[in-house]
Amino acid sequence: MSLNVHGDRKYAGSVRLAGLAEWPDMRIERRTIQAGSQSDLTLECTEIVMTIAGRSAVQRTGNGNKQQSLARPGVAWVCPIGTVEREIVLSEPISTLHIYLPQKLLGERALEDYGLNPGCTELAYVGGFVDPKLNLIGTSLAKLLDEELGPADRLFADGMRVALVARLLASYTADRRTRSAQAPALGRARLKRVLEYIDAHLGDELTLDRLAEEARLSAYHFSRLFRDATGLPPHRYVTLKRIEAAQEQITLGRRSLVDIALGTGFGSQNNFTRAFRKATGLTPGQYRELRRKG
């Protein structure tokens, strides 16, 4: 089920640019928002807006809280679900990135892992700020709009969504967070179980949520702990393991490149070729020829 987003209604005079990435718990799009008044409405999901290009004076009112700011590249706004927005006015057109998130940013397991009080995870209606960490996450997600999405991209998007939620909860909640007991460690046994699961399911879709479930942790907590333990984020580790498996299959010479691409979880030969070249500097075909000559 996709998110019930409000972009087309909120920015009625805007142009949504080509490229759209969407999952059940996140949607990403780019827009050019024209100068003038935007539509009044109640937000049906949480929206993060980041300025890509242009400069404009921005006025908006959320739940009676009137704000004025200057939009320029890097400036962001947080628009929590349920906010009644009125009097949104831009002095000049700007290009923007929009990230939509569901009502529940975190599941129950994540709340338990971090000792978060559910009542303290409500986001604040804030805007007109520059946050380098938030911008880095937004820039990484925006790159997905220009690519053919494969299984590894889904895993990458999951990781970026976790990082985004972590940043929002760390800096933009309406109330201060409360933390109870120390968060659990990944531990050798849990890490071993996850790594063995990855090796056994390289040909399947490996989502961040599924790997976190194998570790008996929330995706929110698992992503950071996995990187601390391996030195790589989950999506990068899985991609490299798939490349290693593909190299072994190519060396054996018993299967076509298409079969290898599908059997190692890349989804298509195009995704396989792109990931293989990025990791090795060679296409799968070039690597096969090199191994034959060797």
UniProtKB/TrEMBL annotation:
InterPro entries documented for this protein: AraC_XylS_family_regulators, Homeodomain-like_sf, HTH_AraC, HTH_AraC-typ_CS, Tscrpt_reg_AraC-type_HTH
Domain (HTH araC/xylS-type) ranges: 192-290
SUPFAM superfamilies, alphabetized: Homeodomain-like (SSF46689)
Keyword Protease on entry: no
Keywords: DNA-binding, Transcription, Transcription regulation
GO MF annotation, one: sequence-specific DNA binding
Record-given protein name: AraC family transcriptional regulator
The species this protein was found in: Methylobacterium tarhaniae
